[in-house]
Design goal:
Bound molecules: zinc ion
Strand content: 5-15%
Helix content: 40-55%
Number of helices: 16
Shape: globular
Organism: Methanolobus mangrovi
Cofactor: Zn(2+)
Protein name: Methylcobamide:CoM methyltransferase MtbA
CATH architecture: Alpha-Beta Barrel
CATH class: Alpha Beta
Strand order of the largest sheet: 1-4-5-6-7-8-9
GO biological process, one term: porphyrin-containing compound biosynthetic process
Number of domains: 1
EC number: 2.1.1.247
Number of strands: 9
Radius of gyration: 19 Å
Largest sheet: 7 strands, parallel
Length: about 350
């Protein structure tokens, strides 16, 4: 029987090649308080210090047992980079975006000419490099970033949802801008050793904006990022929150390799609704992984696998207070599954 490294195994699983068993990975954020206590790198510092970010990301492998390492832990570095006000995170909570910087096409112009070697964008790239130097031969190095639609919302504010319906010129200009940035940032992570890209685009939701607008304002932009990643042989996982069941075919049309679905989606329906994208998910991070026993988690994990998911994983970001043994229960079931 062929033995694969975790890196080969995930890469093969994401690109539709045969593998010996299911990889045990988490495509959404991995940081928890127990890991912070075990490795000595804590939020919020681990969000803005490359060494600490790498140490806490590494704990996902060394403490919990995930067969990959992944950075960062939040989705505000991009908005912060463009000058949005950020509410600081705590040891248990991720930072959030509270102020916005773009109202008009002219405002977008002012953001151009940015330098990716600055701010928290460069911290994430540095952490990626540290992890790749240490684990790059063996483990998948997952780079993650916010998707262009949700980044547009972060830098424009909640008016963004109105803008796509009422001001097409502005909405397209902002999507072009955020997408161009996303590609450059993703490429920089890859240059620093990332071999798998995760796009977290929580509000790019078919459920929120409908098929017509999703097709117009999301699909072509996701496609550009994914094409750029495929050019450098990096598979892409797309995570969108909420009940994406009816939108999966449309989400897949951007050419993405895998789609991470949340706990509101029926896993079997998700598998039935895609042509070839690998379905990733979808244990409830709150009601299952955080608040249930390992035994219950094993049971539910088996159900999700039986529904046909390609990768068993949390349905959204891991809750920081989740117990290590609970995550390990999920990992155990994933590792024992032969396709
Ligand atoms: Zn989510």
């Amino acid at each position: 029987m062929t033995e694969y490294t975790p890196k080969e195994r995930l890469s093969r699983a994401l690109t539709g090649q045969s593998v010996d068993r299911m990889p045990a990975v988490c495509v959404t954020q991995t940081g928890t308080v127990e890991q912070m206590e075990a490795c000595g790198a804590f939020w919020p510092e681990a969000n803005s210090d490359a060494e600490k970010m790498a140490i806490l990301a590494e704990a996902g492998h060394t403490v919990v047992g995930f067969e990959a390492v992944r950075v960062p832990f939040d989705i505000t570095a991009e908005a912060e980079f463009f000058g949005c006000d950020i509410k600081d995170g705590t040891m248990e909570q991720q930072p959030s975006v509270v102020g916005h910087v773009v109202k008009t096409v002219e405002d977008i112009e002012k953001l151009k000419g940015y330098d990716l070697s600055e701010g928290r964008i460069s911290v994430v790239c540095d952490a990626t490099r540290i992890l790749a130097d240490k684990y790059g031969d063996e483990l998948p190095i997952m780079g993650s970033m916010i998707g262009p639609f949700s980044l547009a919302q972060h830098i424009n504010g909640d008016e963004w949802f109105m803008a796509i319906f009422t001001d097409e010129a502005f909405a397209f200009a902002l999507m072009e801008f955020t997408t161009e940035f996303s590609i450059a940032y993703a490429q920089k992570m890859v240059e620093n050793g990332a071999d798998t890209m995760v796009i977290i685009d929580p509000t790019a939701s078919y459920q929120l904006i409908g098929a017509e607008f999703y097709e117009k304002f999301v699909v072509p932009f996701h496609k550009k990022i994914i094409d750029a990643m495929h050019e450098v042989n990096v598979p892409v996982v797309l995570h969108i929150c909420g009940d994406t069941t009816q939108g999966l075919a449309l989400m897949e049309s951007c050419g993405v390799d895998a789609i991470s679905v949340d706990q509101n989606v029926d896993a079997a329906a998700a598998v039935a609704n895609v042509e070839k994208a690998v379905i990733v998910g979808n244990l409830d991070p709150v009601n299952m992984l955080w608040n249930q026993t390992p035994e219950k988690i094993r049971e539910q994990s088996q159900k999700v696998i039986d529904a046909g998911v390609g990768l068993l994983a949390p349905g959204c970001g891991t809750v920081s207070k989740t117990a290590t043994m609970n995550l390990q229960a999920m990992i155990e079931v994933a590792k024992s599954h032969k396709y």
